Amino acid sequence: MFRKRKRQMLATSRKLVTSVNPKSFISEQFRTIRTNINFSTPDKELKTLLFTSSSPGEGKSTSAANVAIVFAQEGKKVLLVDADMRKPTMHFTFKTSNSIGLSNLLTKQFSLEEVTRITNIENLYLITCGQIPPNPAELISSSSMEALIEELALMYDIVIFDAPPLLSVADAQILSNKCDGTILVINSGTTEKESAIKAKESLISAKANILGILMNNFVLEKENSYYQYYGTE
User: Fold this and answer.
1) Residue 62 domain flag
2) Which of 43, 54, 96, 134 is the most exposed place for a label (fewest CB within 10 A)?
């Protein structure tokens, strides 16, 4: 019974609301995030985008997946990459295998074509983490990773990376320096202010282009007119 409930909770937490309920209020917020990202770099085309958080459990992976979906719904060719090679989740989110992926690609065990998966969402492609390596930070900082990012930027309209939390390991800090923009996800009501500040400082020290902060699980009052408008869809 406990295991069944746990699986149900995991399925709910990874719900891709922008796909299953595109007219909902939350989906509209993700489209607003997409618009803000599009206008964030008027002088430069944004091709690679990183999602990270200060600590685990703040919703960065679910946020990255939903943002990827709304970009795909806009008609862009989108690639979502699970760059969290410590606790990957995208294979659960999209209900696919994680037998091969980014780690296998960077170690030249498989080709890009072999590790890229077609999702059930039009225009959206996925590269899962693959086998968890003993040296994630070294792979992220390798020349193979830099070459891969350049190659993917030519193949797709936008590439979205889901990276580990900033205060746990160095992976996200390293990768943020290689991407055109970074989104910091904060869980409303649970993320400590000090942790959020430290996460931002680590991105600044990495010379990351911080596009903004995404506040996750923010609860609107039901009296709010926008809540009532979208909540009836």
Assistant:
1) yes
2) 43
